[in-house]
Amino acid sequence: MYAVRLWSVRRARFWEAFYRRFERAGLAAAPLLRRIGLDRLERPTAALERGVKGLLFDCRMCGACILSHTGMSCPMNCPKQMRNGPCGGVRPDGHCEVRPEMRCVWVQAWEGSRRMAEGQRILELQPPLDRTREGSSSWLRVLREKAPVSPRAP
Ligand code: SF4
């Protein structure tokens, strides 16, 4: 929902701190989650993530979340799905050239990033999006990438 998305960006600092704790808790639980099986957890986790982030950020489940780099403004809400800054069509009032009723997600991203402790991350270059990940859980992806694998884990 658009109004909630704007509200979330205004609270980017809160969400940044929340996500940091959430990630820490996830990594701490990683041995147990790996024992259950990350593949087995994929569907319920993705469904939960879709519900929560859909409500708060209008998440499109790209599978490679970069909210922590974009001031908590989801770049997939850009009609052109720009992931490295705005196109050249931002209107003088900061609205989108394709959907004039909507603020440019990258104007939002910049404003959100100014509220964050690690707001400079917005300057990092994002790789091309791997479309094969669409619909998958970014939460579990972080776990897969960051949590150490014990020798007996699946
Ligand atoms: S960047 Fe991807 S995973 Fe993150 S909120 Fe946007 S669509 Fe969802």
Task: Explain this structure.
This protein has 154 residues and is mainly α. It has one domain (2-146). Helix content is 47%, strand content 0%. The protein has 6 helices and no strands. The chain has helices at residues 2-10, 12-28, 30-36, 38-57, 105-115, 138-146. Helix 4 (38-57) crosses helix 6 (138-146). The longest helix is centred in the first third of the chain and has 20 residues, at 38-57. The protein is elongated and about 55 Å long. The protein starts with a helix and ends in an 8-residue tail after the last helix. The model has no long low-confidence stretch (mean pLDDT 95). It binds iron/sulfur cluster (SF4). Iron/sulfur cluster binds next to helix 4.
Bound molecules: iron/sulfur cluster
Tell me which oligomeric state these chains represent: single chain
Q: Helical percent range?
A: 40-55%
Instruction: Give the N-to-C terminal Cα separation.
Output: 38 Å
Mass-distribution shape: elongated
> pLDDT average, as an integer?
95
Helices, strands, pairings?
Elements: H1 2-10, H2 12-28, H3 30-36, H4 38-57, H5 105-115, H6 138-146
Helix pairs in contact: 4-6
Bound molecules: iron/sulfur cluster.
